[in-house]
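Entry 12.
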Amino acid sequence: MRSAMRALLGALALPSLFATGAEMELIGRLSHEALGEVSGIVKSSRGDFYWVHNDSGDSPRVFAIDADGVPLKPPWMPIELADWPGHAIDNATHFDWEDIALADGVLYIADVGNNGNARRDLGVYVVNEPDPLAIPRMRALNYLPVRYPDQDDYPGDVWHFDCEAVFVADGALYFLTKHRQSRQVGVGAPGTKLYRLDTEHTDWENVLTLLGRREDVSQVTAADLSPDGSRLAVATYTALWLFDRPAEGDNWLTGKAWRLDLDTSQAKQLEALAWEDAASLRLTNEQRDLFRARIEDFTPVRSE
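Predicted 3D structure (tokens):
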């Protein structure tokens, strides 16, 4: 969200604005007019293209884009590419879509943005991945309502229940939270928590399972699992993180960590991340930039 960028001006992130980290490789821009505020990206399982969606305020739709950021559409549609409105999802509502994940041919679209920590209708749309050249619209199979096990008030005294990052590992859907100072929508707070979805009820809330937390990873905006399932990539406004698969259990925040500090003047409001291949990540910000980050540029994080 645009308000989230103002969080960088708070006490948490202010020092990072004056620190220069690594520059990512700028590989292009999203020039399609409808892609004005991309907040989620995932690589397709059907070919060398990506699914993306906009942040809050958009209609319920996704876009397929090629490696250069150009949208894909059915060639028989009687509409110019410049006017292409994306692939509509007819039975969905776009309140605050923040990330998208893909596993076993299924897209998971996370309507879990919760800036004010007061939402009681968080959930995930489940959609079979279509061929973007064959159909112009689709329907969600299900909507999975979710609730945090450690939130009792809406909003509560602690604002640790926003989420902008989901990923799938071993058939389960995971959530990483983005924290704010209590009752301050535009001010970030340190730390993130990792949750897992263990049920798939469609008619009542699925209570997430809290797996762990980490205080040195803050303002998480995206996550994705590597193609071989061995590493988790996480984006924040100021750094990219990698976590090796943990030796035991599935608390990914305990795996060996790697970090790439970012040049925030280049990254700006970094919002979306996907693996291109085993050696590189593709990222986008809300200013329409497309970036590539190389895994070889990350450095190990020393354990305390």
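Annotation: The CA atoms of residues 163 and 177 lie 4 Å apart. The first helix runs from residue 2 to 6.
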